[in-house]
């Protein structure tokens, strides 16, 4: 028998928690057709995997590549880190259904909340759709280097039905609007959506609209939310993805009878950086709610969250109304606000009250936190040739403030202003206790992540999570075995999203496969890449150790280099 591709002599980890074993893999027409010893010379192309691991491609459940896929078929950062399937439409956001006159507003929705540059969306998307089925048709026509599955976001659905963003943010749906939104939801599911998604962070949400107001789903009426859960239940298929409090997840699971993917299960610390215990409460709640019949799986944060940003783009102090006001408007307007002594005094007062925001969410009054305190931020670089400024590179805000005998807020703002808001800040490296990561990543009702690929493109590179998870946590700290790790990264994640034929290496299944050098697997330093539409830049992070990435039987990356192949498929209803 002849094969399109043969992978020879690799150590197979099949994604089913089967103990690893050495074998050859034969691939024809995009599928695995043989496992075992294969005669020499029968493959059109052959890969020598001796000494390497062979595993299912990673399923990245939480991305915002809804626009990026149109100009970046491989959905990088994810595509560089062993990901072969991505899920878009998370957190209630998306671009369908959208009327032509509402396209700009839809892009504005993503510009601040997920920090996707609006000029890239405007230039990079074809906008050859209005309805959700037409959007999926457009994605299907688009060359793809990864497979793609999509939620329908509640934000665009509510705008379409209620007529405007303002209406959707200010009132519940009418009975006739409910009839129409259920029809549209059914239409989207019939076209291939895997369920619906929503951000449910309330009026205090850190992730805000372009004008600083909460997102639509943060404000939507509770009865409308439950109605949409019941509507999905009546359809009898699909998953709900949500970010918010556990109580909301419970109510949505009970009302819909459908699985809920809950964000997030995270390794929190106290204000001194020591491990905090709130994650244990989430793990206990997951066990209890699943025992009651609610199918709720948590997305675990299994990577370091390190911010790198400038005040030219930063929006992750949005939990504070004062800082939110400071970072809204044009560059000149923001500079004027940051120099305003009245605003500075208000920021000082907020600080003294213990309510100063943390980078990434929450405020200083919280005993358990994911975010980073402003004094702990590190000055990475300044953009002007000024020795007085450059001497502070590598110092924290707290150190600069002490040396200058000024308040930390003033030190932070003054250094930024001296660089026209282009001074680069970093969160100090945070240590995650290996036992905490073990507890989170091995919890029965959790899957690893959290990517956010395609979002926060000037702040974060968490799309690299598969590399960090395998290299740092599995290889170096042994939080679990490789068999368990690949089951969670691929098969379990696929199951959660309703992907029916991905996540394992089996005869008859699509050949989504990674071949990698476990010892050589490592993250490379972050860098700025000017590779987006209009020459816009983004922060990226590549890796070493990924030797071949294979999607539907075709090699898409070889030793980190893209081959240009676009064998990815739109996975309607979770199938090819």
TrEMBL record:
Domain Amidohydrolase: 45-556
Molecular function as annotated in GO: hydrolase activity, acting on carbon-nitrogen (but not peptide) bonds, in cyclic amides
Gene Ontology CC entries for this record: cytosol
Signal peptide from the UniProt entry: none
PANTHER family cross-referenced by the UniProt entry: COLLAPSIN RESPONSE MEDIATOR PROTEIN, HYDRANTOINASE/DIHYDROPYRIMIDINASE FAMILY MEMBER
Protein name as it appears in the record: Unannotated protein
Organism (species): freshwater metagenome
């Amino acid at each position: 028998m002849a094969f399109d591709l043969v992978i020879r002599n690799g150590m197979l980890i099949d994604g089913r928690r089967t103990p690893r074993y050495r074998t050859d893999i034969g691939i024809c027409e995009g599928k695995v057709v043989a496992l075992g010893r294969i005669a020499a010379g029968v493959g059109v192309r052959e890969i020598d995997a001796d000494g390497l691991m062979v595993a299912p491609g990673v399923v990245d459940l939480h991305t915002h590549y809804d626009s990026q896929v149109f100009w970046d078929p491989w959905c990088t950062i994810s595509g560089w880190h062993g990901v072969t399937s991505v899920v878009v439409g998370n957190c209630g956001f998306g671009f369908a259904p959208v009327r032509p006159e509402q396209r700009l507003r839809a892009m504005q929705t993503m510009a601040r909340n997920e920090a996707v540059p609006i000029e890239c969306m405007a230039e990079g998307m074809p906008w050859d759709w209005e309805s959700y089925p037409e959007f999926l048709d457009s994605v299907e026509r688009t060359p793809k280097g990864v497979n793609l599955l999509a939620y329908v976001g509640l934000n665009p659905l509510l705008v379409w039905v209620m007529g405007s963003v303002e209406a959707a943010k200010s009132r519940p749906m009418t009975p006739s609007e409910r009839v129409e939104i259920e029809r549209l939801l059914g239409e989207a599911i019939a076209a291939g959506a895997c369920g619906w998604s929503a951000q449910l962070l309330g009026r205090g949400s850190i992730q805000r609209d372009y004008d600083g107001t909460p997102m639509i789903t943060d404000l939507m009426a509770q009865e409308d939310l439950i109605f949409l859960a019941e509507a999905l239940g009546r359809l009898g298929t699909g998953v709900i993805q949500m970010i918010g409090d556990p109580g909301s997840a419970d109510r949505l699971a009970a009302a819909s009878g459908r699985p809920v993917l809950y964000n997030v299960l995270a390794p929190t610390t106290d204000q001194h950086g020591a491990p905090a215990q709130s994650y244990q409460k989430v793990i206990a709640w997951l066990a209890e709610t699943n025992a009651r019949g609610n199918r709720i799986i948590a997305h675990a944060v299994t990577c370091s969250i390190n911010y790198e940003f400038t005040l030219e783009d930063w929006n992750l102090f949005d939990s504070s109304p004062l800082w939110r006001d400071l970072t809204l408007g044009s560059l000149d307007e923001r500079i004027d606000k940051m120099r305003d002594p009245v605003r500075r005094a208000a920021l000082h007062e907020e600080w003294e009250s213990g309510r100063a925001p943390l980078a990434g969410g929450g405020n200083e009054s919280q005993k358990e936190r994911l975010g980073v305190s402003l004094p702990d931020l590190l000055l990475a670089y300044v953009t002007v040739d000024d020795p007085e400024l450059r001497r502070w590179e590598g110092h924290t805000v707290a150190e600069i403030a002490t040396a200058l005998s000024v308040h930390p807020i003033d030190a932070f703002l003054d250094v930024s202003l001296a660089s026209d808001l282009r001074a680069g800040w970093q969160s100090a490296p945070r240590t995650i206790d290996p036992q905490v990561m073990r507890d989170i990543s091995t919890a029965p009702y959790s899957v690893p992540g959290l990517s956010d690929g395609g979002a926060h493109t000037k702040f974060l590179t968490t799309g690299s999570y598969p590399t960090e998870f395998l290299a740092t946590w599995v290889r170096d700290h042994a939080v679990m075995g490789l068999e368990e790790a690949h089951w969670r990264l691929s098969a379990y994640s696929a199951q959660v999203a309703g992907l029916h034929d991905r996540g394992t290496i089996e005869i008859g299944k699509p050949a989504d496969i990674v071949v990698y050098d476990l010892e050589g697997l490592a993250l490379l330093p972050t860098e700025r890449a000017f590779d987006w539409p209009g020459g816009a830049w983004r922060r990226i992070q590549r890796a070493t150790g990924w030797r071949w990435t294979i999607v539907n039987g075709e090699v898409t990356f070889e030793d980190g280099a893209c081959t240009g192949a676009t064998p990815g498929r739109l996975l309607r209803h979770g199938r090819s």
